[in-house]
Amino acid sequence: MKKIGILHGQERTFPQAFVERVNSKNIDGIIAEPVHIDKVMQGEPTEYAVIFDRISQDIPFYRAYLKNAALCGTAVINNPFWWSADEKFFNNCLATKIGVPVPKTVILPSRDLPPDTSDNSFANLAYPLDWDAIFSYTGFPTYMKPFSGGGWKNVYKLNSVEEFFDKHAETGELVMLLQEEIVFTEYYRCYCIGGKYVRIMPYEPRNPHHLRYVADFSPTPEKLAEMEDIVLRINKYLGYDFNTVELALRDGVPYAIDFCNPAPDADRNSVGEENFAWVVETAANYAIEKALAHVDGADNLTWGEYIKRSAGQQSLYP
């Protein structure tokens, strides 16, 4: 019997529907259930061939559990080793190397010193930074947001140098990005599952949260194909099994704004019935694919082209 587990927190609509859909397919030797953990011993396997992770980004204990599970052969969606190392600035840097348009972006050291550090810990950092060059590069208005994490937390729209320094003083020990504003005419949020299944959804981030998927953008078939290519390229190099990519169209050019979402929103109440049905069905099919391909004791994780090419000392460039 190959078990597919889903690890989740307060989320309910997607995990319940996912388990029900997998089981309703009545695939011989495949069963799905919520993950049950009563102990975690080093180097000992779990009972799951596949675990769909929806919560470990918030709970370090679960992240450690998943790494041990993966080491012992569980196919974890998404790869917990890569997700632990990933962050938004690296993703933007990678995008510039694989031909994906992204906003001009700068990373900034934290405003306050991290714990157990002093001024001497930053002996290699110039002070002050070359603020004139930084502001000239991103321009104003600009957005400031944490270099890691999501959920629209600690995000600022800034209109001037004075406003930047005022708001940056509020960010404490957070490492922030400063990013060019993309004034868009159309915006899309795109599911990507298994590095091959894509759903492009009109999305309006300026609407209230429950209305963001209520948008009437109508891309041409050519533009849909262009956006799908970008989504697949990003996920091919990052190696995510389940991710969303947000694309903002400026002068017809799709800019990847946010594409580090390995536990993306899949709640029926926000994404809407049609999108919810697609993501449940596609996630269930992909998890079954992974379970059927699972090899006991092997590395069953998905690794992106960046890691694979680096390990093989191949050129990063496509």
Describe this structure in words.
This protein has 318 residues and is of the alpha/beta class. Among the domains are: 2-84, Rossmann fold (3-Layer(aba) Sandwich), CATH 3.40.50; 104-180, Dna Ligase, domain 1 (2-Layer Sandwich). It is 33% helix and 20% strand. It contains ten helices and twelve strands. The chain has helices at residues 13-24, 60-71, 80-85, 88-97, 131-138, 161-168, 221-238, 268-271, 273-293, 305-311, and strands spanning 2-7, 30-34, 50-53, 75-77, 105-108, 142-146, 156-158, 176-180, 186-193, 197-202, 242-250, 253-258. The strands form three sheets. Strands 2-1-3-4 form a four-stranded parallel sheet, with helices on both faces. It has a four-stranded antiparallel sheet with strand order 5-8-6-7, with helices on both faces. Strand 1 (2-7), helix 1 (13-24) and strand 2 form a beta-alpha-beta unit. Helix 1 crosses helix 9 (273-293). The protein is globular, with a radius of gyration of 21 Å.
